[in-house]
Amino acid sequence: MTESRWVRIGLRAVSFGVLAFLYLPLLIVTIYAFNPSRIQTWPPAGFTLHWFGEAAANPAIRGALLNSLLAGAGATAIALVLGTLAALAVHRFAFFGRDTVSFLFVLPIALPGVVTGIALRTTFQTVGVDLGLMTIIIGHATFCVVIAYNNVVARLRRLPRSPEEASADLGADTWTTFRRVTLPGMGTALLSGGLLAFALSFDEIIVTNFTAGPGTRTIPIWIFTAIQRPSELPVVNVVAFVLILFSAIPVYLAQRIGGDAGR
Amino acid sequence: MTAPLSLPSSRAHRFATWLHRRPRVQLGLLLSGPVGWMLLAYFGSLSILLLNAFWATDSFSGQVQPFRWSLDAFGQILTNDVYRTIAVRTVAVAALVTLTDLLLAFPIAYYMARVAGPRVRRFMVIAVVMPLWAAYLVKVYAWRTILQENGFFEWILTPFGIQAPGLGEIANSWIVLSYLWLPYMILPIYAGFERIPPSLLEASADLGGRAGITFRRVVLPLMVPAAVAGSIFTFSLTLGDYITPDLVSDAKFIGNVIYDNSSLGNVPLAAAYSLLPILIMIGYLLVARRLGAFESL
Q1: Residue closest to A67 by CA, chosen among A175, A250, A221, A176
Q2: Do residue B241 and residue A206 have CB atoms under 8 angstroms apart?
Q3: Cα(A36)–Cα(A222) distance, integer angstroms
Q4: Does the distance separating the beta carbons of B202 and A119 come in below 8 Å?
Q5: Is the pLDDT confidence value at B3 over 80?
Q6: CA A206 – CA A114 distance, rounded (Å)
Q7: B20 and chain A: CB distance < 8 Å anywhere?
Q8: Considering CB atoms only, which of A89, A220, A250 is closest to B31?
């Protein structure tokens, strides 16, 4: 089927229109980050770098950033360990309920986020666990496992078994073979899975808002509260701009690794 | 591999040898961590949530009374019109967002997969993926600045004599949620177009099918699984969102009722109401599986 010339031109116009739609909001926030006025009106009144200094000196932002990094690191570590274990089990063994395992992991992202959030918060409150960084990590890890699992299982399917068999034949035990053969083979899958899990955790608010409790703020929660106070908006613009810049890093890394992290 | 292998006498090695002959134990050790975590943290939580939906609240203090069974929460939801209105509104917006994203995703995905050259295609894939990595709240906040009074929309619409909607309108939730989930729709549909073998289209053309007919009779039916796969994201993510509706409009969603009641301490009502999105999504996923969407994820 060949498209006529006009169909092609129409398709191109719509496609680049959609791309413009995707980038317009990001562009506008970027411009606002340099707006000297405290009041947000379009078009902006001029150009300043003043708010960058204010944002860098803001202790609430620093605290939130630290919490976000800790939560991301904790959740990613748990997700990688659990996801790898499950991937090894599913890949190496045939057992009753094998198909259910991947369904088990995908459910927290298939069901609406608000459900995961309310379920975890209700449980923590019923059992008597104080909300804080720990409960944030538990929530994030729960929906990050599937990402690590998917990445590792996809890699294991592509890895040949022969190097592991050779390693065993040469006298290496299970641990040595895993450490020297299997783990290096999974390396980039773990990297891209970890990257994706960390990014998901760093960005999460729907569940985090339920499990954070009043004292602990992550970057998304800080933005969420600061948005609703007009005096904070100039600093929010700067944080938003920096986060937009950061979003290029994983895309670049995913291209370099060539893994499935771009998805 | 330069270092010599560890000497085969250590305890770890003996354990490895023992383990090697017992695949069931290996499997148990591998699975117990991840499955235990999911059962405890996720399904345990869902069960406790379900229990809470049937617990009574003290009529004076509003305190939850564990293990005092009551159907009050369900009674409130079924008798109060507000809860029905909010449920219908949320599902309607989720359907509308899904439809909007389908209409926007089809042309760009088709262009990427079948019209654009390899360089443009690579550029466009990256361009579609990149906004996914940009923070969710940054994007919602950006839309707030666009939609608010004296914002970008007002500036661009006023010369045409059109009144900008301003914050508060329910249409804002539709626009912003369609924006947020659009890449989740474009990517599976793009992959779906890529999977269609060109020979099929040639066969249709050889048999006299013109472009329009080939698209309708050959391409569209083959795209159903991909479209349904994308719609799982757009539908479920809209159904579960309460931050965006809160920030860009006054119209509450299912998630707002759940969050507000949970924060105010009326946990049984929040728990009972959260069964609604769970049931809707389970139904949606069952239909999606029948339509073959899971192979396109």
Answers
A1: A221
A2: yes
A3: 22
A4: no
A5: no
A6: 6
A7: yes
A8: A89
Asked if residues A174 and A182 have their Cβ atoms less than 8 Å apart, the reply is: no
User: Å from A162 to nearest chain B CA?
Assistant: 17
Helix (H, G, I), strand (E, B) or coil at B68: strand
pLDDT tens digits, one per residue of B230-283: 999 999 999 999 999 999 998 999 999 999 998 888 889 999 999 999 999 999
Interface of B with A in 67-96 (CB under 8 A): none
Rounded to the nearest 10°, the torsion over CA B3, B8, B14, B15 is: 10
- Is the pLDDT at B185 greater than 60? The verdict is yes
Closest CB from A11, A85, A262 relative to B30:
A85
Q: Does B220 contact chain A (CB < 8 Å)?
A: no
Report the helix count and the strand count for chain B, using DSSP H and E: 15, 2
Instruction: Give the distance from residue B13's alpha carbon to the nearest chain A alpha carbon, in angstroms.
Output: 6
Of A29, A92, A110, which is closest to B138 when you measure between CB atoms? A29
A110: closest CA of chain B, how far (Å): 7
Q: What 3-state DSSP class applies to B294? A: helix
For residues B35 and A96, give the distance between their C-alpha atoms in angstroms, rounded to a whole number: 14
* Token digits of residue B281: 């999504």
The Cα B69–Cα A240 span in angstroms is 47
ipTM of predicted complex: 0.88
B170 touches chain A (CB under 8 A): no
B124 and A15 in contact by Cβ < 8 A?
Answer: yes
Tell me whether residues B111 and A41 touch, CB distance under 8 A.
no
> Cα torsion for B280, A136, A119, B139, to the nearest 10°?
-30
| Range name among A17-21, B35-39, B61-65, B92-96 with the lowest pLDDT average | B61-65
The interaxial angle of helices B267-290 and B254-264, nearest 10 deg, is 150
Q: B97, B181 in Cβ contact below 8 A?
A: yes
- Give the pLDDT means over successive 10-residue stretches in chain A (263 positions): 79 94 93 84 81 85 94 96 93 82 84 92 90 94 93 89 85 83 87 91 93 89 91 90 87 69 39
